[in-house]
């Protein structure tokens, strides 16, 4: 119960500052009861311990003779994996095709995932900075692009347009009794790679790997889902290896009927599961969010998670200039990309401005471009979500900034403090654009190249520090290395990715047992992230922390507390809203940390 955890809060504080915090705080069940024996256990990645089964267990579980005789410990297995991984790396040194290297690494990790989940997740948790770029962006993009060829073993669930009317029973085919976290996509906008149909399933798998590693969600209780409603990607439809439905995407009511049925099936079997919508094309991203946000415990990561991370970065850019946060409404921000992510960010940033006392009519700090250039009020057929950011005419406007003005024109004339890309167009912040950013009105011009994967990043940190100057601030959606500026100085390549928020949003929502995920809960998470970095770090140009269980616990606790404050919490695992509401801030962080799953081998007892 949480009370004992709360009493140990000073211990937790100490543990939280060490890297093995979650290991020490997670209270594991004494044994796992298995309904299997022999090879069935070795073939089940959840129970498999490979050569670490002790002799007593080998006897009990019918494993004697099925494994090499020497029993090895977990640490030895861990070392064996890391050594073989390093050998793979060494063998591939000098390989000119970086795609081959990335896929070889992913395959190595994926094989471990399929064989022994305990070892896999420990390796992932301990080396999250090194392995996140493989299980997540950028390599996950490559995996999705090549998924049909790479397919070996199914992971997650596939609901298709052909399953209409069947989903309510299909959902019971999933073997786990309880599911806490679901990440679902329809594959229609996978990173910046477009419509990848059923191959998009790699994204829910990658996101849920981060849920396990960074939020301590039990991997037995996660479910990656792809809703295959067809694809409009001609290349895939013609690819004989393609594993999805060979039909154009469903549209309109037919499409929504599939999503509705899936959501109702989830509710029927796991009413308390949190559902994260991921990589839906813009029209369905906004529509499904509005359709379900008040009825289910769900959120859209691209719209809402990204917005919180970007706002934290934008506020960091204000602090980096030595200016107070209430100066934010005076920051000129050029956003390139008016899709689900770009509009999500703009809405959030505008809301922050309004909170600082600026009126709806008075906000004047955003210039938004899409594929047709600067968006102004003369543009016809504007999506209402975009319309409120369209530039008009009048005394507040910069003369000559016409409808459809090019990016370089806009940057030259606006001299923005921040240039933020969510366009999915690699290299669009070219030399000319970045040189124009050098004339920014900010002493610390900020460039956020947030599109994924790496090939779609709007620019690189090398280009930014070269063309904008050493004072620039840089962040990207996919990871880049820091840049050496000479004289011992470093240009920091921050990663501005929703991965800092979504694990904490999901965890906080889950542990609060929230009926739905409110704006207040999302704001609490984002504010927590924004205040996480110290002034000293910000001055150096560091905007975000490394992804870790520590930051997730803080964000999760903030989200949980907001759910309590808004009376949305119904509690979880026997800890009710009343009990949750009596926890102090620190106790909530302790509680969240204590609830995180951590990979260790448990004794197995066979019921068979
Ligand atoms: N760093 C992060 O955490 C996140 C990054 N993203 C990335 O953001 C990108 C966009 O995602 P969504 O908004 O969902 O896509 P989307 O397809 O909804 O929107 C793309 C937008 O970019 C615009 N665009 C296309 N070409 C352009 C050009 N040449 N110049 C200016 N604008 C152009 C389009 O008109 C559209 O408004 C993707 O690459 C995705 O990976 C998305 C979510 C989170
Ligand atoms: C990071 C992410 O969610 C995206 O690029 O879509
Ligand atoms: Mg996404």
From TrEMBL:
SMART domains: malic, Malic_M. Residues 113-293 form the Malic enzyme N-terminal domain. Divalent metal cations. Prefers magnesium or manganese. InterPro entries: Aminoacid_DH-like_N_sf (IPR046346), Malic_enzyme_CS (IPR015884), Malic_N_dom (IPR012301), Malic_N_dom_sf (IPR037062), Malic_NAD-bd (IPR012302), Malic_OxRdtase (IPR001891), NAD(P)-bd_dom_sf (IPR036291). It holds the Pfam family malic. Its main location: mitochondrion. GO terms for biological process: malate metabolic process. It catalyses: (S)-malate + NAD(+) = pyruvate + CO2 + NADH. Its cofactor is Mg(2+); Mn(2+). The keyword Aminoacyl-tRNA synthetase does not apply. Residues 303-564 form the Malic enzyme NAD-binding domain. A divalent metal cation binds at residues 278-279, 302. One of its GO terms (cellular component) is mitochondrion. It is found in: Mitochondrion. One of its GO terms (molecular function) is malate dehydrogenase (decarboxylating) (NAD+) activity. Keywords: Metal-binding, Mitochondrion, NAD, Oxidoreductase, Transit peptide. (S)-malate binds at residues 189, 452, 497. The active site is at 136 (proton donor), 207 (proton acceptor). Belongs to the malic enzymes family. This is Malic enzyme.
């Amino acid at each position: 119960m949480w009370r004992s955890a709360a009493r140990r809060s000073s211990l937790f504080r100490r543990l939280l500052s060490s890297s093995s915090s979650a290991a020490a705080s997670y209270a594991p069940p004494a044994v796992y009861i298995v309904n299997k024996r022999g090879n069935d256990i070795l073939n089940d990645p959840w129970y498999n311990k490979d050569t670490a089964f002790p002799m007593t267990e080998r006897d009990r579980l019918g494993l004697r003779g099925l494994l090499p005789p020497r029993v090895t410990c977990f640490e030895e297995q861990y070392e064996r994996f890391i050594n073989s991984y390093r050998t793979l790396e060494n063998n591939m040194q000098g390989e000119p095709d970086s795609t081959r290297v990335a896929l070889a690494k992913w395959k190595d990790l994926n094989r471990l995932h399929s064989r022994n989940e305990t070892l896999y997740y420990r390796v992932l948790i301990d080396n999250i900075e090194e392995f996140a770029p493989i299980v997540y962006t950028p390599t996950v993009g490559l995996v999705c692009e090549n998924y049909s060829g790479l397919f070996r073993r199914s992971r997650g669930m596939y609901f298709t347009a052909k399953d209409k009317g069947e989903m309510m029973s299909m959902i019971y085919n999933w073997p786990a009794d309880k599911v806490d976290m679901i990440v679902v996509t329809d594959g229609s906008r996978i990173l910046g790679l477009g419509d990848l149909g059923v191959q998009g399933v790699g994204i829910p798998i990658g996101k849920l790997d981060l849920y396990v590693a960074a939020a301590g969600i039990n991997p037995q209780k996660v479910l990656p889902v792809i809703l295959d409603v067809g694809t409009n990607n001609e290349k895939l439809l013609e690819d004989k290896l393609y594993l999805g439905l060979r039909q154009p995407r469903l549209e309109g009511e037919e499409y929504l009927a599939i999503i509705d049925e899936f959501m109702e099936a989830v509710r029927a079997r796991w009413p308390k599961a949190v559902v994260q919508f991921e990589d839906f094309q813009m029209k369905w991203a906004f529509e499904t969010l509005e359709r379900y946000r008040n009825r289910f415990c769900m959120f859209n990561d691209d719209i809402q998670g990204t917005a919180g991370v970007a706002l934290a970065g934008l506020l960091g850019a204000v602090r980096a200039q030595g200016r107070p946060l209430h100066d934010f409404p005076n920051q000129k921000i050029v956003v390139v990309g008016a899709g689900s992510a770009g509009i999500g960010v703009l809405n959030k940033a505008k809301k922050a401005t309004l909170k600082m006392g600026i009126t709806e009519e008075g906000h004047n700090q955003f210039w938004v471009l899409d594929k047709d250039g600067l968006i102004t009020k003369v543009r016809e057929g504007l999506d209402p979500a975009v319309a409120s950011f369209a530039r008009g005419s009048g005394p507040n406007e910069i003369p000559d900034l016409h409808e459809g003005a090019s990016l370089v024109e806009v940057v030259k004339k606006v001299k923005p403090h921040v240039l933020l890309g969510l366009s999915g167009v690699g290299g669009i912040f070219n030399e000319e654009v970045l040189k124009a950013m050098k004339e920014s009105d900010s002493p610390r011009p900020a460039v956020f190249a947030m599109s994924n994967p790496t090939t779609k990043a709007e620019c690189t940190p090398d280009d930014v520090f070269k063309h904008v100057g050493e004072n620039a601030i840089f962040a990207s959606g996919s990871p880049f290395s820091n840049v050496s500026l000479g004289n011992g100085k470093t240009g920091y390549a921050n990663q501005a990715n929703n991965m800092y928020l979504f694990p904490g949003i999901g965890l906080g929502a889950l542990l609060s047992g929230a009926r739905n995920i409110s704006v207040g809960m999302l704001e609490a998470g984002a504010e927590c992230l924004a205040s996480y970095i110290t002034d000293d770090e910000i001055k150096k140009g560091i905007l975000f922390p490394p992804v870790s269980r520590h930051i997730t616990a803080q964000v999760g606790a903030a989200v949980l507390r907001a759910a309590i404050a808004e009376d949305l919490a119904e509690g979880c695992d026997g800890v009710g809203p009343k009990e949750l509401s009596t926890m102090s801030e620190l106790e909530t962080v302790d509680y969240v940390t204590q609830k995180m799953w951590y990979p260790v081998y448990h004794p197995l007892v066979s019921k068979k």
